What does this fold into?
Amino acid sequence: MAMFLPTPTKGVVHSMTESSSRRLAFEVSYDGAAFFGFQRQPGFRTVQEELELAWTGFSSEKAVIHGSGRTDSGVHARAQVVHLSTMHQAPAAIAMRAMNAYLPQDLAVTQVAEVAMDFHARHSAKAKHYVYGIAAGPTRPVLARDRVWWLRRKLDVPAMREASHFFLGTHDFAAFAAAGRSTKTSIRRVRSIHLQERRGCLAIHVRGDGFLYRQVRNMVGSLVEVGLNKRDPRWIQAVLKSGDRSRAGQTAPAAGLTMWRVHYPSNPFAPAAASVSYR
Amino acid sequence: MAMFLPTPTKGVVHSMTESSSRRLAFEVSYDGAAFFGFQRQPGFRTVQEELELAWTGFSSEKAVIHGSGRTDSGVHARAQVVHLSTMHQAPAAIAMRAMNAYLPQDLAVTQVAEVAMDFHARHSAKAKHYVYGIAAGPTRPVLARDRVWWLRRKLDVPAMREASHFFLGTHDFAAFAAAGRSTKTSIRRVRSIHLQERRGCLAIHVRGDGFLYRQVRNMVGSLVEVGLNKRDPRWIQAVLKSGDRSRAGQTAPAAGLTMWRVHYPSNPFAPAAASVSYR
It folds into this structure.
């Protein structure tokens, strides 16, 4: 009788594994301190490599992880987004749990979603949100010391706020781009920039369609020149117009920067989508 | 002529140093992870010892640091308060800067004040405010991992909030006191308890006149039993009434606890007082 026939589970799973490719998107969080940045580099510990190793550990399958963007050595992520293509048929929630079992303490998958094959963590991204943290004052920050830039002097935040407005909109950000990565154009759009003061710390929120290499850290370094009253707020406008990197301020340290969120035309992790979220 | 006489600065300072004792209060912040608690213990790295070593390094004077209370191994402080008596006549602001030059990365003085000789960090304290952080959900916290207790399941926060109300007021907290420290009475007053949810983290704010050894961590451990729906909110009331430590929940881990603030009848660090504040 049919009900006693053993179901050919193994065979079925195997043939599914062979035939149907799918794409998964992950939201990941990492503490950048012990990583040599996001992008794989032989001989160095990187976020991409750890994620690929975790995927292979769980699935015994090689995979390439694509991120929404690279983060430099020391830069943190609250919610970086990555994707991979796979033949593995594990439910998304199981895949996430398995990944986390393989990942180290300073890196975790926080959300997962089954996405369309044309979703691409980098190409589909329409905006990014970064936060830069500063502790300004003669006293060393202790509890936040690995997440902020410590400046020994108070900052003139109203002057910085005034200066920050010059970044808004579409500009050629060549003066705020570090050399080292080729891009077709240095024109970018900054959608918003907010300076938030809370308990002696300053958080600079920057949202834009995309950023040049070290653009956010260079923008922050220049805003700090204004905050220290070494420069007038209008100086930012002049540097922007000059397109000359040598005229901008120093690059703010990596540890203060956190990739906060990546925006897509439709949020792959929204409850309506086939996603599992725990944040 | 008198105006050309060299002023005997050195002599005067020396005689002041010999004669006038004064008291300084410091607000200190520390990351508890690498400390064996606050209280000095030969052979272990403690907050008290580091502060005393810093004072001696700066002043060449031995001093005893008195804290508002001990914190256990692994417990953090945003704003612990300590005092010392000294013959050294350095201005308070200079003393603070000098202390910080001697202190390690995970410990700093954040405020200083010249206080009356009858001010005592512990005896003068009228209330303390602690914050306990919890990350509840299957995903490991990454950026906050050294400051929170990670529970793998969601918590029923409304039930915890209901349960927390039973702690309010004056009670015999014997059921929530760990053995190991003698006190005359286990009656304490909890002034307020607030559960604050923010981005998937739960912060439990507890304010009280004083706390028994591990009382806050034991209260949190029991609230978590309620949050996991293992216990009814009313169970807290029954445990309190029983006075029986074996009936309460587990002790919440040290890393989630932060000494947030110590209150005095008049704030020694208020701008009106002879204080220097940088927070």
Summary: The interface with chain B takes residues 29-31, 76, 78, 96-97, 100, 105-110, 137-143, 145, 147, 199-200, 258, 278-279 of chain A (CB under 8 Å). DSSP finds six helices and eleven strands in chain A. Confidence is low (pLDDT under 50) at residues 1-18 of chain A. Residues 47-59 of chain A form the longest helix (13 residues).
